[in-house]
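Re: weekly structure request thread

Next one in the queue (210 aa):
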Amino acid sequence: MKLFRARSLPFLVLLILTISLGVYFANRYWINRYDGLIARQAGIYRLDPDLVWSIIYEETYFSPWKTGKSGEIGLMQITPAVGREWAAETGMHELERQMNQNPADLLRDPERNIQIGCWYLEKIYEQYRDTPDPEPRVIAAYNAGPSRAAEWSKVSGGAPPLSGDEFINKIEIASTRAYVTSIMQRYRKLKGPAESTTIKPKSPAQTPAR
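Done, posted below.
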């Protein structure tokens, strides 16, 4: 019995190692399989793809079939209302028709979902282009709405703009504060301590391996 256990131990170790490696590489594939789409759309809308990636990680963990409690759909949890606003701005009547008749089909498409999400993020970012540490504000607006983020970002007359951490501390909705904190932690980890966290255009070749 002891001899059997001694012989089986290396096999068990090898089996555990094989399973662990399989899980690791499967997970790497899962979270990076949309990197090309993210890089392309982020470049079009002048966003850092690492920020977009971090938001998708938090929203759905790269699961395009997910829906939210308030009707949000797809990878970036886009609402039909935002989808209709995007479609109207494109001026393409076929997209408007699809968004009015069956928004779910359009919003479950990964590329279209990321495109609309990036379009919406750029609209939010325009409000904070000249603000230090814009990322927490953009993320908060994406989650809780632009008007709430603008209210939390206010300072008294003549005071300097809030830092990113000061802004996060002013967020009054606990779930939004946790959401912003989680995304910023992941985003900063991707950027590394030596890189600036200012949103800026990046080419696909600049997107780091995760």
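Confidence is low (pLDDT under 50) at residues 196-209. The chain has one domain: 34-206.
Next request, please.
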